[in-house]
């Protein structure tokens, strides 16, 4: 672990440091707008893209205008490698033996584990816990964001407002009905202040809409600027549709921890698929959702599928014994299950792997695969436009967007170099 500790220190220092100008040329650009060979991109000292295009002459001119010496270390020849926007994971719990619930140091470790594989921005998912612990962990994320790191987008609460029948690996003793007083307590911990228009650090919260106060809680969170997500539910079609109409804008990991498709009991999935306002999470590891259903999902909702990892502490680690909150987990062949009942306990997936297998195993186009890991998750929170969290928009390789870059090996789609807001991570 000595090497990893060194990596964590280096990545953390980079993310807490200042951006530098970056100029990359001779790349194969892949983003949601398409593919382009001979592509170049230039960003400034604020970590924002100032110019992009094709042709070496115009690249040299752009470097000069940005004050970048063409012979400096800021200039990189991609040698035909793939240049994609940094990946955005809106649902992950940890990596490298740490969870995002494990305090500031745990966040540093788990973020480094994802960052070196190209996940430049992340919503930190917090597991179901006693309410006081959840609120403590929310405040921890809030404090971490206040330190100025650009990579932490906020937190996602996966619980405690989940259906008991669809709880998955969440502690049943901590599940609750989202009565208004508890919602207020959670929003207060996030720093939300409706009187002054302050949104707080919670980006997303998964809610089973069929709970007694499920729909009212969705409305309450949405009014506070949080994007509620329908998931871990046993809702029928009508109730799920009511949840989206009440303000839910995401479906938490479609197909997992919910009633499935049935021709006489449609359930929540068609309600999400038919609603253009809804971003649909999908875990593309071949285990949570098998390949035919991943491809079906892309056909269902083009441009609305967001790859997520639901990654837990064992991500990028050997098989063995781990924890998910207070619950014991055993990982065998990379698959995490609760020791108590064998329930799937999150994944050990990285977005790097989700994109790679989409292209190389499923035959999904590189543009669609990259879109599912970049622009689509950014859109779920309005981060594809200028906003108070990321400043410059994220999700595309274009002037005005943040300097979030992944330089990728075209053969295996392995991420080789990474920048977040102009900060070199790998």
Automatic annotation (TrEMBL):
Tagged with keyword Hydrolase: yes
Residue sites binding Zn(2+) per the record: 158, 232, 253
Single GO biological process annotation from the record: N-acetylglucosamine catabolic process
Positions bound to substrate: 169, 256-257, 264, 288, 344-346
Gene3D superfamilies assigned to the protein according to its UniProt record, in alphabetical order: Metal-dependent hydrolases, Urease, subunit C, domain 1
Active site positions, chain numbering: 310
Keywords tagged on the record: Carbohydrate metabolism, Hydrolase, Metal-binding
Name this polypeptide is given: N-acetylglucosamine-6-phosphate deacetylase
Species the sequence originates in: Bifidobacterium cebidarum
Upper lineage: Bacteria, Bacillati, Actinomycetota, Actinomycetes, Bifidobacteriales
